Amino acid sequence: KSGLYLQHLGRVHQTRVRELRQRGEPVPDSVRQSAIDAFEKADATDGPYWNYRLDIARAIRAWPGHGAEADAAYRRAIELAVESEDENADLAVLDEARAYAAQTKNVELARFTLETLTRVRPEKIEAWVDLARLESDAGGSARAGATVELWSMPLPGDQRFGETDLVHASTDGRGLFRA
């Protein structure tokens, strides 16, 4: 069987999970596991491929009590998307993982997504600001300062960004970074 066929099979199982939840019926673990198994088989057949790994993360995140596994699945999907030749795979996976991290208040996953985004897409200034805010909110004014220092470095071949861009950045009364 092809990976694509197995991916569709996993999505059929996910649809069954959604239908049961919408009707207020309990979702058997076996149905959730069937979706994950199908995506893992697809990945083993055609992969590793970021899209299959993202499907695995989605299936796990919908399973209450499996936050750590969902976190790991998103991290693996991110790694594969960054390595991928698919032009915007990294942004698609990072955006979804960031949304999941925000929804679940998972600071470590949020930090991982922002650090990865600033590494692979350094031109995404809003990611640098979000990372500095995250570090500041976590009480890490020293880490936030280091993030701002990195953010203020000029990008190779693009002198538009530099220390003058920090004019809008300052610290609040407690010495914590805000932008």
Write a structural description:
It is a single chain. The protein has 179 residues and is mainly alpha-helical. A hairpin with a 5-residue loop joins strand 1 (170-171) and strand 2. The chain has eight helices and two strands. The protein has helices at residues 3-22, 29-46, 50-61, 67-83, 89-104, 107-120, 125-137, 141-151, and strands at residues 170-171, 177-178. Strands 1-2 form a two-stranded antiparallel sheet. The chain is flat, with a radius of gyration of 19 Å. The model is unreliable at 141-154 and 159-179 (pLDDT under 50).
How would you describe this structure in keywords?
179 residues, mainly alpha, two-stranded antiparallel sheet, 8 helices, flat, disordered C terminus
- Classify the beta-strand content into a percent band: under 5%
Order of helices and strands: HHHHHHHHEE
**Largest beta-sheet details:** 2 strands, antiparallel
The computed structural class is: mainly alpha
Radius of gyration from CA coordinates: 19 Å
Give a quick summary of the entry.
The protein has helices spanning 3-22, 29-46, 50-61, 67-83, 89-104, 107-120, 125-137, 141-151, and strands at residues 170-171, 177-178. By secondary structure, it is mainly alpha-helical. Strands 1-2 form a two-stranded antiparallel ribbon.
